[in-house]
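Reader question, answered in our methods column.
A reader sent in the components of a multi-part assembly and asked whether the whole thing could be modeled at once rather than chain by chain. We filled in our standard form and ran it. Here is what they sent:
COMPLEX SIZE: two components
ENTRIES:
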Amino acid sequence: MIETLSIIVVEKDRDRALLIVDALREAGDYKITVIGEETGLARRIAENRPDLVLIDLRSPSRDVLEELALASGPMDRPVAMFVDRSDTGLTRAAIEAGVSAYVVDGLRPDRIRPVLDAAIARFHMFSRMRSELAATKAALEERKVIDRAKGLIMRAKGIGEEEAYGLLRKAAMDQGKRLIEVAQAIVTAAELLR
Amino acid sequence: MTVTLPLGYIPLVDAAPLIAAAEFGFAEEEGLHLDLHPAASWSMLRDMLDFGQVVAAQMLSVVPVARALGLGGGAQPLETALVLSLNGQVLGVSAPVAARLGAVGFGDAAAAGRAVAGLGGSLRIGVPFPFSMQAELLHYWLDHAAPGVAVEIRTVPPPRMAEALRADEIDGFCVGEPWGSHAVEMAGARLLLPGAAIWSQAPEKVLACRSGWMEERPETAGRLLRAIWRAARWAADEANLTTLAEVLAQPRYLDVPPELIDRALRGRLLVSAQGPEVPVAQFLSLHEGAANFPWRSQAGWIGARLAARFGIAPGGAAEVARATFRSDLFRQHLGPAGAALPRASEKIEGGLERASEVPGMKHPVILARNRFFDGQVFDPALLV
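And here is the structure of the entire assembly that came back:
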């Protein structure tokens, strides 16, 4: 019988960690441990003797895991980054999704594949959520600046909202600039001249 | 036509040449648009290089050599044709260890070694990455100044250094600025030495590319090297430091107070929270003294140290290591741009008691003082 694969998920955000754990549970029968603390990370991982460690590609703590990849590191079994250096397709998919995996040397690729596939799918979802959130935030910010610029024009020229917006759009078109750029220039100028 | 090049960096003071190249027109002058990608870890930066998300990156000088020797993670061989900085590291201890050390002057590596040896017990010291000049300087210093002291070197991401000190995970650290000053301010740490007090000319960061890229794209590589080299020359000029510190301090780059960066750029350090500021000679070199030239002997020294520690045959290791520092490409691309070119591509590391002239291709080249604290020298000719 093959022993249950032991997986560590390093993730500070509790909700994200739970989502990853759920996805892994669906993918197979694994022993999963979540580490949310950065304190003593290398020691905690070494004590758990995992077969596989999953961590956000952007996590600053990744460099701590590099220590585990050294033969003289705190783990007695050498760890390699990713599945297999030859399987660049899977590695690239993982990188693009924003997940990095540290795998104990000699673990069979067919045992790792389902874990990574599940993690990759989940991390893709995270990065989509992250970029959607960023886009929403940026759109909100732009809206605010445009509204302020509109208000400034309305006050300066004693005109209505629609007319002020029309002037802004015309200026942007004439100068070949984005609306937000013209609005930002007006707001900056107004702050300087205040 | 403008060429866009994706470049990776870590928000540190010694990312200055990359940021200055993008911000002050040096890239533009070469028809380049530098698309700068910050990374949160050295592993991430290395992966970005491996998988072509960036074509070049600020990198720890030890990483290309370690990779060539088959140490650490990553898949692609890396090389460099430009050293971005020498030194800039600080070595410090936690408040409790500082209290036990008593009065040790700042900057005396031998005395600090004796004091540390007198502590007894074992020490846990944090460094940013297992393959870094910080780790190499620490090993060299302890091997030579405090032999027999039991040390456990741990990897701690620099922004976490202060927290790790407070949580009693580590007793000391060796890290680049601004994170040493940060530990002083946030965790009451005391600085013992600048890296320059261990080796006054330790190559700290390099501009790393995937091996072969610079020869596949010689024209682009030439433009990139010139833009960053000129930016480094500008960044080393004292007249520009205030402007440089202001730009580096911006939220999209380092996001720390400009005073911290200004101190590091000028080599003035706050040794303890109570002060005072201490001026440090050769604290950080971005350009002076042929600092940007990738000496084969620098890579040779790193290779020899790694080989000894990881049990690799020294002769072969030196050859493999030397090949990662491409002084030939520096000559090819930066000679015509006016960089001072020494006649030799190797020098005796640790062999200059004071700044001196050495023979150059057109004009003599002035090299900075190059000493190890214990007066030892590394002669690359003795290895092969």
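What stands out: The beta strands of chain A are 5-10, 30-35, 52-56, 79-81, 99-104. The radius of gyration of chain A is 25 Å.
Send us your own complexes using the same form.
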